[in-house]
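=== RUN LOG ===
request id: a7f3
mode: sequence -> structure
chains: 1
length: 454
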Amino acid sequence: MPDTLLQPDRGQPARSIALIAPDAYDAWLAAQPPRVRTALAAQRFTGKSGSHAIYADEDVQAIVVAAAPDVWTLAKLAEALPAGTYRVGGAIGPAALGWLLGQYRFDRYRRADDTGARILLTQDAAGIEETLRLAAATGWVRDLVNTGAGDLGPAELEAAAERLARDHQASVTITRGDALATGYPLIHAVGQAAVKERAPRLIELEWGDPAHPRIALVGKGVVFDTGGLDIKPSAGMRLMKKDMGGAAHALALASLVMAARLPVRLHLLIPAVENAIAGNAFRPGDVLRSRLGPTIENTNTDAEGRLILADALTRAGEAHPELILDFATLTGAARVALGPDLPPLFTDDETLAADLLAAGTALDDPLWRLPLWDGYDEMLKSDIADMVNAPDGGFAGAITAALFLRRFVPKDTIWAHMDVFAWRPSAKPGRPKGGDAYALRACYALLKRRYGTR
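=== RESULT ===
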């Protein structure tokens, strides 16, 4: 999305968009010339809240009826209007972001949309830069998730992190292939069956003043998930290019933190693997040793995401951050419980939970807290190892996965886990079908609130 789609209003020539409250519509309509009233009547436009109409009045104009501007107020209109420059009278607040996201297109594999740009002039000049950054971060998540696994493997995630580091003068460390076997045995075990060109790796980026508070962002980077030897059916494998959605979220959030120059010491960690099938694939029943030390009886090779996250969370904890946020397309159980739009939030910290939930509500980027229920911790017991990676029976699958991850987070470190879907199964205004960011804006707002004023 070009930066030119949102510009300061300096009185440039522009077509008009009327943003009207529902209870003010009748008065507004009465003040319009007959040609406008006739045009709206021909469309059977009644001024219902959330509706819009496009009409000609010397030039193309539009009306949007909304009680108050929210993120998606202008999103549908941005998709429908012809190319040109537009202005809305008065402040539009978060609706500017929806205007940008409504023009997102993923055109890597097809001819680009040539309908032209719809430029919005805004009186909130101070908020333009931040809005553009949020739109770019969301678009980056969508692009990464939408890209086919044949074009986005561990090496491409590594390259994305390196480009991000160059843009912000950060450092990158890569532990790759057989070098993982001793230091990060779970990442190595999950990714070892992939071909050499798609060897597993742990990608680490560090940025910021070491004297500032240290935070860690961890993202699951399974670039494609066959399910391993516990192979998925074809229907279950169809969307597994999106299994690196957690990594996409972590990269995008890191980009926002660095672009805003928040006073933190940032540590980004992405365990990047392909869960492939070959003669050396890890097996059901194998006992694996983690970087932290505890052994894990592998009861399901399709529960691989929590394994690679365990080693990455351990590495993050070794640097003693005061906060860890992890993102992962971790469980189908989360989707059964809450559907695609509502990512479960898991944390033992009441303040962090309240702040994230409040940010999600305020920004229309919601989360829903699920419990780290200690009573289910015994489901992780193994007869032969310290724990299993996936309990039998399927009960409380999202919770037991989060409890598994909690075992690899230092007890004195504040931590939250987001089980994101990273995919929108049906289109909504500003949110096309395909890859999408969930809880990204809420987490960024949380970090700004906590660290932006230091």
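=== NOTES ===
The domain at 134-451 is CATH 3.40.630.10 (Aminopeptidase).
The chain is about 35% helix and 20% strand.
=== END ===
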